[in-house]
């Protein structure tokens, strides 16, 4: 496992993408930072983290070789790897808030940003950015955030968590090679936050409505059953969950 440790950087994803272009690097090369100034989440949202407290890293995965239309399976298996990692520190009650926020105790504990490298309609490689709240205990202006330390009451080794995370990523990427994508989607759906529970959503027009999460499509759209029992599918820009 090749680990590049940095003190501060704009973004571990950006740093890793630059060295991929400039030099040949090995599978599961990792860039970590104690602090990043321009960490981003889904749809360009900003990821904020206290210096040295949390696990901020990007992982390079080579030779994925799946069709572009199946790209959501990467998000699914990375989410499952994080759920498995949290289980190792006794956070067994963790869930995936679609598409790939990780929740514990109904609060966000981890965010994921995956940037795929595409060639001829195939995803060849991926840069997997992960921000996991480990030892930070105060989240100013972020009432829905939490950390491992807040939930279990003790500090944890970020290095040990990273080691477990990479092992779990390898485990699920190997499953992608050896089993059908459908089995990974089934595990992902089983771990979905608020699946089959009444939830409130807001669409891109600002309209609020109720429904039940029933699963995800192969392309990663969220399947929601509405009041008339009609199931509609929504992509990330079309819907947000309010509770």
TrEMBL record:
<dbReference type="GO" id="GO:0004077">
    <property type="term" value="F:biotin--[biotin carboxyl-carrier protein] ligase activity"/>
</dbReference>
<keyword id="KW-0436">Ligase</keyword>
<dbReference type="InterPro" id="IPR004408">
    <property type="entry name" value="Biotin_CoA_COase_ligase"/>
</dbReference>
<dbReference type="InterPro" id="IPR004143">
    <property type="entry name" value="BPL_LPL_catalytic"/>
</dbReference>
<dbReference type="GO" id="GO:0005737">
    <property type="term" value="C:cytoplasm"/>
</dbReference>
<feature type="domain" description="BPL/LPL catalytic">
    <location>
        <begin position="1"/>
        <end position="177"/>
    </location>
</feature>
<dbReference type="Pfam" id="PF03099">
    <property type="entry name" value="BPL_LplA_LipB"/>
</dbReference>
<protein>
    <recommendedName>
        <fullName>BPL/LPL catalytic domain-containing protein</fullName>
    </recommendedName>
</protein>
<dbReference type="InterPro" id="IPR045864">
    <property type="entry name" value="aa-tRNA-synth_II/BPL/LPL"/>
</dbReference>
